């Protein structure tokens, strides 16, 4: 398996392209562990974009821009929603 500088072999993290509905100029690629629960994902995003955890509503989209899931249960692990790089 080929590895990149961003992902070590055996690393099961996922690199997601993150956007913000109210900050049109905000876009970032952020690496997450699938074991992180949704609340931990929100806390990590809070540090990137400044939106409070309680004000966030996370949605997962596929590469075509179609909504795949609404991450509404803060206790579920991110991996439950089967995200993949990109």
From TrEMBL:
Transmembrane parts of this sequence: none
Source taxon at top rank: Eukaryota
Ubiquitin-like domain residues: 14-86
InterPro entries linked: TBCB_Ubl, Ubiquitin-like_dom, Ubiquitin-like_domsf
UniProt-recorded name of the protein: Ubiquitin-like domain-containing protein
Source organism of this protein record: Brassica cretica
């Amino acid at each position: 398996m080929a590895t990149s500088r961003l992902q070590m072999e055996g690393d099961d993290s996922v690199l997601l392209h993150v956007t913000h509905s109210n900050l049109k100029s905000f876009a970032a690629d952020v690496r997450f562990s699938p074991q992180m629960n949704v609340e931990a994902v929100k806390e990590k995003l809070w540090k990137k974009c400044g939106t409070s955890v309680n004000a966030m509503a996370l949605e997962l989209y596929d590469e075509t821009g179609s909504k795949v899931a609404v991450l509404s249960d803060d206790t579920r692990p991110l991996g439950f929603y089967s995200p993949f790089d990109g």
